[in-house]
Each structure stands twice: as structure tokens, then as C-alpha cells.
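Quick one, T. Sequence first:
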Amino acid sequence: MGDIMKLTKNIEEANLITHSGNFHADDIFATVFMSKIIKNPVLYRLNNYTDDIKTDAIIYDIGGGKFDHHQVMSDYREDGITKYSSVGLLWREFGKEYLKTITDTDIEFLFNEIDNNIIYQIDAIDNGQFPTIESNYKVKTLSDIISMFNPNWNNQDKMDECFMKAFNFANEIFDLEINKSISKQKAEKKVEEEISKCDGQILVLKEFMPFKDFILESKNPLAKTLKFVIFPSQRGGYTIHTIPKSKLDRTPR
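C-alpha cells:
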């Protein structure tokens, strides 16, 4: 997916521009996404954006433009609470067109799946909305993990090297999320087909695939009667799962 991304010290070579200094999940994942839709992506990391900079590059997370979220009037998501970050703005603008180039499955489903699973949380955390988790131990978010790639305070000379390490890590995550979402969509279709063949309380699948959410969300009346799912185990033999009452109530039916 996409061409190899390069960093440049010459702004005239760049077709992508973002801020320099410490990086975050927002600008890292924005760069990952743009590297998949821009031919021969070349990134310039800028200290300060000024109006006299003349470029056709896509500029994000800096400069006050369409894909920067630091203005007072920046766009909010439909919840009216969460502002878009730069990756959210770029995903909103280019996400569906990108998905059309890699799959012929339900684009609307995939767009929302990727948005809910990865983009939304980056938007929220980058704009200061941190999840409340009551625990005696530190729970690291995806944003926390990306921030760990920044060089330590006493080793700032390796910033570009660290940026690329974070980029490569995030690229793997992004591709995994895309592939898993496509796979999930295909599983939904298969599960619905098997539900339609059921004549009792047990759903038998020919192979393991995600099923619980699809059964709970299915509009097929037969899905409401299911209590067990059986499928070949990846360890050999078979596995039996109960069906919970709902997504919120995990008590078996």
C-alpha cells in the first residue's frame, strides 16, 4: 500500500508538510495515511509556518489551514464535544476515496469501522480528552505508545530517525486495522448466511470467524433465538461459545 515515504531537509522537494519537534499520534498517523494516497510522498517537518511559504504540498497539524485543528473555529465531530485532529480531518476528506482503491467491499462500513477503532481516539486524545480509567497501574493508549518513540530529552539529535521508527510502527498498525476491518466485514456476510440456515438454538460455523456482535446486531429473527455457537477450534477439535444477552450484559442467554 502506497509508496515509500521520505523525509527531506529541502521544503521545495516536499509534497507533505507538518510540524517539527516532538511528534504525536496525530501527525504520525496523518503522515502514514497521506503516504498511502500521495504518489512518491516526501515530508518536510517545519519549525514555523509563515504566509510567505509558497508550496503545493498538503500541510497538516500546522499553519492554520484546512487540515490544522489548532484554531478556535476548528471542526467538531457529530458528538459536538470532540474536535477533529489533523488525521481526523484528513480521514474525513480522503478516507472513502482511499478505501475504494483497495477494496470493493462496503466502503461506508469500513470508513466508520476505521474511524471508530483508531481515528476517533486520536482526535479525542490529541485535543485533550483523555479516557478515564480507574486502575492501580498505568494504562497506555495508542497515543502514549507513539509518544514513546520521541527521543529522550538528552538525545534530541536523532529526531528524524525516531520519527521514522514511529512512522513504520504506526504504518503496521494502520494496515492491520484496515485488513482486520475488511476481514470482519466478510465475516459478517458469512455469519448472516449461516444464521438464515439455522433451525434451532445452535449456530454451527464451518470455520472460526468473528460472530458475537453480528448475532447481537442481526435483524434476522432467527438470531434472537440463538444460544450457542460451535466452530472448529484453531487448537484442534471444536469450540462452543454462549451468546450473551446484549453487548452491555455479557450474561449468557
